[in-house]
Specification:
The protein is α+β, with helices and mostly antiparallel strands. Among the domains are: 30-138, Sandwich (Immunoglobulin-like), CATH 2.60.40.10; 204-317, no CATH class. It has helices at 2-30, 161-189, 204-218, 226-245, 254-263, 269-287, 294-311, and strands at residues 33-38, 42-44, 48-58, 62-64, 76-81, 85-88, 93-104, 108-112, 116-120, 125-129, 133-138, 314-320, 323-329. The strands form four sheets. Strands 1, 3, 5, 6 and 7 form a five-stranded antiparallel β-sheet that branches. Strand 6 (85-88) and strand 7 (93-104) form a beta hairpin. Helix 3 packs antiparallel against helix 7, helix 4 packs antiparallel against helix 6 (269-287) and helix 4 packs parallel to helix 7 (294-311).
Length: 335
């Protein structure tokens, strides 16, 4: 009897301990809640829907979210997963949420099994699960009353500028190559050089002397065209000065031209005097209707020749051994 009584007391003590630990665990578990919910229960094939996971837990507890790969089930695929959104409820608890974007490509009524969260404590590890739920995936309804139509032809998008550009550049390039080939063939047949040598620019004094010779041969003042004679004479000298000294002469008055020569360190007094006398006589003829004598007309032409000859630029080439050195020397030819 005494032994039986001892066993009865021991069993009662063990049962009491189990009840105490169970109550403590249930009290702790009641403070942790997990939830999974879809934003809607039905979708069409290929549509996307958000699955929201919520975890409410005390701050000092450790609960791990489930880890998902590419699929939630065999038929439901995961497209993306958001980061955890943690909210402090200011009462010793936190709310943690996570959104999972899912889709399905087969129609049907699919059950999503409870999703497990892992609760870890100092002495034990437990699994907390959500409630199971269903997702209906519908197909696109076909209107069987309409006549079956043929498949539409592929849609042709308009051709853009950047699609045409390579072809256009290619055609232009081929045209240029063809032109070059034809040009070379013609030159070979005509026995002409393929590349022309450009004639060097004539010196300013050569141009001026040629124009003065033309003016002399035209004999304008001999035919009573005094004004035309002096106009051409001064124009020849103006163009010569522009080419020789790189000063603007065609748009300037005679006085402005003479002033520009002084500023360009023109130091030939006799040439300056010839030019000044020529401009003064020309001005009297063009604006004061002055009619000079034949000797005066001839003297102005001779003065123009002399001015060009005294101020012309002479190029001297010096060759030493195999080295050729071209030196430009400005010379003023004086009588």
């Amino acid at each position: 009897m005494r032994v039986r009584k001892k066993y009865t007391l021991l069993n009662s003590f063990i049962i009491l301990l189990v009840l105490i630990f169970s109550s403590a665990f249930n009290l702790c578990a009641q403070n942790i809640t997990v939830e999974a919910a879809l934003e809607k229960q039905e979708i069409l094939i290929g549509d996307q829907i958000v699955l929201n996971l919520k975890l409410l837990q005390p701050i000092n507890e450790t609960v791990e979210f489930p880890v998902f790969n590419e699929k939630l089930t065999d038929t439901i695929e995961i497209i993306s997963q958001s980061k955890f959104d943690t909210t402090d409820l200011k009462n010793g608890s936190v709310l943690i949420q996570k959104n999972i974007l899912i889709t399905a490509f087969d129609s049907g009524f699919y059950k999503i099994s409870p999703i497990a969260f892992l609760h870890k404590s100092k002495n034990s590890t437990d699994t907390l699960k959500t409630k199971p739920f269903w997702l209906k995936v519908n197909t696109v309804q076909l209107d069987t009353t309409n006549v079956i139509k043929d498949i539409k032809a592929p849609y042709r998008a308009p051709i853009g500028f950047y699609e045409i550009l390579p072809w256009a550049l290619g055609v232009i390039g081929l045209a240029i190559i063809g032109f070059i080939i034809i040009y070379i063939i013609r030159k070979i047949k005509r026995k002409e050089p393929i590349f022309r040598r450009f004639r060097p620019v004539e010196p300013a004094h050569i141009i001026a002397l040629r124009e003065l010779e033309k003016l002399k041969n035209d004999k304008l003042w001999q035919h009573e065209k005094i004004k035309d004679y002096y106009t051409r004479l001064t124009d020849i000298i103006r163009i010569y000065l522009s080419n020789r000294y790189a000063i603007k002469t065609l748009e300037c008055t005679s006085e402005e031209i003479l002033q520009s020569l002084k500023q360009s360190e023109f130091d030939d007094d006799k040439s300056f005097s010839i030019l000044k006398d020529l401009f003064q006589t020309s001005g009297l003829v063009k604006f004061a209707k002055f009619k000079p004598m034949s000797e005066e007309n001839e003297r102005c032409l001779i003065g123009a020749y002399e001015f060009v000859d005294r101020t012309k630029l002479i190029i001297i080439e010096n060759n030493e051994g195999t080295d050729s050195v071209n030196e430009k020397v400005v010379e003023t030819v004086k009588n």
